[in-house]
Amino acid sequence: MAETGHVEKSKKFAPKDPPKLNPPKDEPISVEDLAKCDGTDSSYPTYVAIMGTVFDVSGNTAYSPNNAYNVFAGKDASRALAQSSLKPDDCRPEWQDLPEKEKGVLKDWFTFFSKRYNIVGKVQQL
After folding, report:
1. Is residue 121 helix, strand or coil?
2. Are 61 and 73 in contact (CB under 8 A)?
3. Cα distance between residue 56 and residue 116, in whole Å
4. Mind listing the pLDDT tens digit for each residue in 45-72?
5. Is residue 117 classed as helix, strand or coil in its secondary structure?
6. What is the 8-class DSSP label of residue 115?
7. Low-confidence residues of the chain, pLDDT below 70?
8. In contact, 82 and 102? CB cutoff 8 Å
């Protein structure tokens, strides 16, 4: 019974037309390099990181400049996603201190992204 619920939840985040995704990479990406991938320079891809995992969102114009989700581009936006916030000050990697409900929201966002965007690396910790 619990397994059925898990499958239903998994389907909830599945796109109508699932993209063909590449195998996930775990290449280290520095915070500085991630910041260059904010959608403002067409010679760089557009990246969003969640819990240290970097997703390539280049194909989605919602993350390009002057669009609603550009606030997440070029950074680890874990806290903002967990809090359903579009405030630039909330776009930061710290999420471990959040309430369980917000951690659940963040995990849902991670699942949502992982079904739509290629994982290109991990934010390099200093």
Report:
1. strand
2. no
3. 9
4. 999 999 999 999 999 999 999 999 999 9
5. coil
6. T
7. 1-12, 126
8. yes
Distances (CA, A) of 29 to 1, 5, 52, 89, 115: 41, 35, 10, 22, 21
Alpha helices for the chain (secondary structure H): 2-12, 31-36, 78-82, 100-114
**Comparing C-alpha atoms, which of 57, 63, 59, 93 is closest to residue 78?**
93
Answer whether 39's CB lies under 8 Å from 70's CB. Answer: yes
Rounded Cα distance between 82 and 51, Å, is: 10
- CA–chain centroid gap for 39, Å, is 14
What residues form DSSP beta bridges with 56?
A: 47, 118
Are 79 and 94 spatial neighbours (Cβ–Cβ below 8 Å)? yes
> What's the predicted TM-score (pTM) here?
0.88
CB distance 49 to 55 below 8 Å:
yes
Give the torsion sign (CA, 123, 124, 125, 126).
negative
How far is 47 from 68, CA to CA, in rounded Å? 15
Cα dihedral 66, 120, 94, 116, rounded to 10, equals: 60
* One-letter identity of residue 87: K
Task: Name the residue with tokens 């359903």.
Answer: 84
